[in-house]
Amino acid sequence: MSGHVRSYPTSAGITPSKVRSRKRTERLELAVVYAILILFALAFILPFLWLVLGSFKSSTELFANPPVWLPSRLHWENYATGFTEFPFLLYLRNTLLIAAVNIVGAVVSNTMIAYGFSRIDWKYRDGVFVLVLATMMLPFQVTMIPLFILFQKLGWIGTFLPLMVPAFFGNPYFIFLLRQFFVGIPKELSQSAKVDGASEFRIYWQMIVPLSMPVVTTVMIFSFTHAWGDFIGPLVFLSDNKLYTLSLGIQQIMSENDPRWPLLLAVGVSMTLPVIVIFFLLQKYFIQGITFSGIKG
Amino acid sequence: MNMNQKNTINGILFILPWIVGFLAFTAYPLVSSFYYSLTDYDIINAPVFVGFDNYKQLFTGDSLFYKTLGNTLYMIFVGLTVITLVTLVVAILLNNRKIKGLSFFRAVFFLPTLVPFVILSILWIWVLQPDSGVVNTILGWLGIDGPGWFASPTWSKPAFILMGIWGAGGSIIIYLAGLQGIPESLYEAAAIDGASAFGKVFHITIPMLRPVILFNVITGIIGTFQSFAEAFIITEGGPDGSTTFYSLYLYQNAFQYAKMGYASAMAWILLVIALAFTLLLFKVSNRFGSDE
Fold first, then answer.
1. pTM, whole model, 2 decimals?
2. Structure ipTM
3. Residue pLDDT, tens place only, A102-120
4. Is residue B214 one of the residues assigned to a domain?
């Protein structure tokens, strides 16, 4: 009886003061975590803020020492002049054209290739797929010089072709992403379609691709953001300044003597904004694509 | 024709674009790159065969080559380590059910990765201006006299590391997804055993996350060897060669000094490095097995 009673004090001793103190430490811990996270978040937002604020400043305010945080008034004319002074619209048109062709090429070629690596059983398939994965890590610089020489011999340097044609021949990362998704679609679906007399191509185009729109969207987004921001490709392959993309055009203007920085910052904000809007509209596809690439394993 | 043959033909037809692309844009360039690496080639005149002279010159007669290797290794040993630690800490802090606003934080950390290289470079030139930049202003409030960053041979690489942290949101997302895959029951068991918050991190989180960390670090090493645009745009390798990284020097040799053969030798050395790390990745990650 007494033993029975003695077994209580511990649990009785915990409540209520100890629970309260445990709760207090937990709350303190949480506060510290929040503080650190908010500090990091501020540090991540600050450069953006500095860019946006800078794009509305006058030249004098931009170079002021000590720095000026807020512009005396919003210099919207940085944007207006930026769009007209640089061949902004021409560069924008070039970039969009390259991006559009890349998206089409990426979707058509990679869905086909991924289908061949997942929905059809053939003998050397998985061995060949290892080769695809091995090329995933290949630095562009390794093939850059021979590609330049090859494209020059073909007369492609100074045209958009070097930045467009390769998109139609598959990209290991996209193949991997799509294949992972295709593998998860039940085999029975294809089999019953085959019984009904559908060809492999019809199953691919009318069944598997429509079922895979989430991952196809991810491929389209990454294909766009890559073409939009690519720098080394245009730098190496475009020699004619009428063909420049936004990235290359802006860099060329930067490297001039005494560039007009407020205009550059305004153009910079304008070039970043579309990608950010796309991110907020299609956030889940971005996150999906990123986690898929790094985690499966 | 039996079913197997038909499948093989269909399979090859479907992957045909990849086969053609692999031969034309990967295999052929690799082979011809090796040939060019054994020549003197300035693009205008025909290549002249010189054997392994380019390699000999790189390893025995080019101190700048060693300097670029050193700069790149600095970015791996110091930069990648710092970036890995910061992204891990942020991800671990975010992986707390009691934290509200997860999607807000995730968006904030991911957004910088969307900024195009050129704009990223413009932005950081301004943020790290020695006199009028925001970082040195804030350091000034704390009584610290901020360094010259991109203008200083000592601080130029740390400046690129800061940029690297800012652009590493992708790793935070990947780590976070990995953390969410760790079963809650492990932490509960540890809590019953009286483990502290740090104990849980070192005995559960880090070991469970090891494959993801390895994957990120190995791809990060290959990525560091490739990194080009920022240094090309911001510093052009300076000051005093302190930011001439491997890929930048390769590009300069090829397209500024028209030493295609010499640059091809560098490309082949880079290929060997990338291949070694890719093999390592295959070894440590079962993701590259036959199926997921």
1. 0.89
2. 0.89
3. 999 999 999 999 999 999 9
4. yes
